[in-house]
Amino acid sequence: MFRQDRLDAIALLILRTGLVWFIFLWAAHKIITPTQYQNLARHFDGVDVSISQIYLAAGVQIAICVLALIGIGRIFSYGALLVMHFFTVTRRWEGFFDPFALNDRNFPINRNQVIDLAVLGAFVALILLIRRDHFSLGGYLAKRAGRLKWWM
């Protein structure tokens, strides 16, 4: 059967792929509906951003997603995804204190904030287990070099 380190690597591949997809969707959505993100920046952060700034941010996020998906520069790419998501979490923290709030149609309005905490925990776990992430290009290159380089 499979050895435990191989099972760990498979689990991390699945975790990494899911987390990258999660952030990629948000980045791609910036390209599809940039005015929505202009409104969000104005509402949450009190700043006005141009459409070109939103496209630039989305492009950088997508590039980091590609690096993380492949597993290149793991400490940078995984860490950058964590920081991006942490920024989102800090902007919506008030919903954590009332996770069961409903609107007038009995729809849970703070559900996404609760999901955000689970995703944040998954990003932290991905980074903590980076040395077991053998099914990534960085993990492969480190193993091939005969050294344990967790940042590759």
Provide a descriptive summary of the structure in words.
By secondary structure, the chain is an all-alpha fold. The protein has one domain. 70% of the residues lie in helices and 0% in strands. The protein has helices at 4-32, 34-45, 51-70, 74-91, 111-128, 137-145. Helix 1 packs across helix 5 (111-128). The chain starts with a helix and ends in a 7-residue tail after the last helix.
Write a brief structural summary.
By secondary structure, the protein is mainly alpha-helical.
Write the layout of secondary structure elements.
Layout: H1 4-32, H2 34-45, H3 51-70, H4 74-91, H5 111-128, H6 137-145
Helix pairs in contact: 1-2, 1-3, 1-5, 3-4, 4-5
List descriptors.
152 residues; transmembrane helix; membrane; transmembrane; Inner membrane protein YphA
| Average predicted local confidence, pLDDT | 90
Radius of gyration equals 18 Å
How far the N terminus sits from the C terminus, by CA atoms, comes to 29 Å
Number of helices: 6
